[in-house]
């Protein structure tokens, strides 16, 4: 019963994080209009999001290693809760950039800690749960991007921020005390906080990086693509990421079973090919519904790439717990947080449709390196 409660709590944490991130996605075109900024300046805001995460992630990684993931996840989530409100009341570009930087930092810390808690739960139960945890994240993304976009269109940024913050806080009050406790054993020597020497986590990190860049491009730029290049309304534009997050949620809930049946390597290969096809359709689409269909197909493929990479990293043979996971988390999330900023600059020189086609080609990397994720398979007697 206790394990069931802890499993529900970590799932709720992923759901809440996805809700917040999904609510951020349709805000970008609204911020561009309110602050009167171009795509390149919007790209700088997205860059601030990534820089905040990359800056703060190591601190929460160290906190997780020293004190366990539960305490780190609780602190990061509490700091993240009011982030959308600070962004909503920022009067100018630079104050908005600071608010987005803080949002990225606390959100990145929460990402590290909740993934570490999920890995601890996998080890406790000797079965894969990572994909379904990320399924709850995608479900939160659907709610945040879809319904959040509608609230944003009807009532504005501040009301959307207040509503999302209230839901987030209520969920956190329930989930926080129920998270799995995973402090280091008293007699366990402290793992040195240094980068591993083995190339394996870095190679898996490349898989994670290439997998997360397309997801970040859809999260941050699908709404802009649909609104600016295809003439969609704000409420419809929010469904670009929502469609991707919806199919990701479904496939992530099924992902642990698929991995157990077909193995991590074959699941990774099939997923990469499907994601490439979806990005191709989105990039070549002539209408908003066709582009949204492409993003939905891309979500099917993207769904299990990062969860498989994280499980593989957290279970590398001969490597201390959490060491491989920290490397792959940092590399993977740098893709979703930093690369979209470069897309903002590229979007002023090329269409977003062409950029999505190029991102499909990038997925040749996880396809080619798929053999490295075999450690994600659980073999039980």
In short:
The protein is mainly α and 381 residues long.
How does this structure look, described?
- By secondary structure, this protein is an all-alpha fold.
- The chain has a single domain (about 1-180, about 200-375), classed as Growth Hormone, Chain: A.
- It is about 80% helix and about 0% strand.
- The radius of gyration is 19 Å and the shape is globular.
- The two termini are about 25 Å apart.
Write down the CATH class: Mainly Alpha
CATH fold topology: Growth Hormone, Chain: A
Mean pLDDT over the full residue set: 85
Cα-atom Rg, whole angstroms?
A: 19 Å
Along the chain, the helix and strand elements come as: HHHHHHHHHHHHHHHHH
Count of DSSP-assigned helices: 17
Q: How much of the sequence is in beta strands? A: under 5%
Distance between the termini: 23 Å
Largest pleated sheet? none
Taken together, the total number of domains comes to 1
The low-confidence parts are none
CATH architecture: Up-down Bundle
Question: What share of the residues lie within helices?
Answer: over 70%
Coarse structural class:
mainly alpha
Global geometry: globular
Helix and strand layout, with pairings?
Elements (H helix, E strand, L loop, with lengths): L1 H23 L2 H9 L3 H29 L1 H12 L2 H7 L3 H33 L4 H26 L1 H19 L24 H30 L4 H4 L1 H24 L1 H21 L3 H15 L2 H10 L8 H24 L5 H11 L1 H5 L13
Helix pairs in contact: 1-6, 1-7, 1-8, 3-4, 3-6, 3-15, 4-6, 5-6, 5-8, 6-15, 7-8, 7-11, 9-11, 9-13, 9-14, 9-15, 9-16, 11-12, 11-13, 12-13, 12-16, 14-15
